[in-house]
Specification:
The chain is of the alpha/beta class. The protein has helices at 3-13, 17-31, 33-55, 60-80, 102-113, 127-137, 154-162, 198-210; strands at 90-94, 118-122, 141-145, 175-179.
Length: 211
């Protein structure tokens, strides 16, 4: 565990919000979003989650405080980055039953660092709303996040992958990226990408934009 992660965990347990914010900000500045997420944020979030699971309600306040500050740090990057390239954007969304969005926010922040434009819909997006957004935006890629196997929706992946737009003779579609541990037991349809890490997902999305 990196020293930044240990310090972040200790600060979160103390409910020291300013210190949590400082550590997160410095980690992102020093490591970049992908490494800060992988080596600092995620291990600290997992540690807080394990304490909550072991001790009941005692540590839920720690996890909530830490999650809020992680989200704030990631959104600060995502909305304050350099101008994006003039290409079709990436669309980021969760499955209709999925309420966890930190990984989507990490993806948005990492794409911002690379100048890749995105649109983010967030948690629990109904199928019709997602399909309408795909048609209206015409994205280069659509990343669909599932945190748990109970929220994975293989049929939704198929429907998004079948969606096309544009004038007759020049119709196009989007790369579909099924991301998150929820897909482990419910493999998405053939043709959908299945990244294992945030770095893999960001690489796939950037390649889709530049293809």
């Amino acid at each position: 565990m990196r020293p930044e992660c240990r310090g972040l965990t200790r600060a979160a347990v103390r409910l020291d919000g300013p210190e949590v914010a400082r550590i997160l900000r410095e980690a992102v500045d020093a490591l970049g979003v992908v490494d800060a997420w992988t080596e600092v944020m995620m291990p600290a979030l997992r540690a807080a989650g394990r304490r909550w699971a072991a001790d009941g309600e005692q540590y839920v306040e720690v996890e909530h405080l830490l999650s809020w500050h992680v989200s704030s740090a990631l959104r600060g990057v995502a909305v304050g980055g350099p101008a994006a390239r003039q290409v079709r954007p990436v669309l980021l969304t969760a499955t209709p039953l999925e309420l966890h969005t930190l990984a989507i926010e990490a993806t948005a922040a990492a794409l911002t660092e690379r100048g890749v434009p995105f649109r983010i819909l967030g948690a629990a997006v109904p199928p019709r709303a997602l399909l309408d957004a795909v048609h209206r935006i015409g994205p280069s890629a659509v990343m669909i996040w599932s945190q748990d196997q109970h929220t994975a929706d293989r049929e939704l992946v198929r429907r998004v992958g079948d969606r096309v737009w544009g004038p007759r003779g020049a119709r196009g579609g989007a790369l579909v990226v099924a991301a998150g541990p929820g897909w482990a037991r419910d493999q998405p349809r053939a043709g959908a990408a299945r990244p294992r890490t945030l770095a893999d997902a960001v690489d796939l999305l950037e390649q889709a934009v530049t293809a």
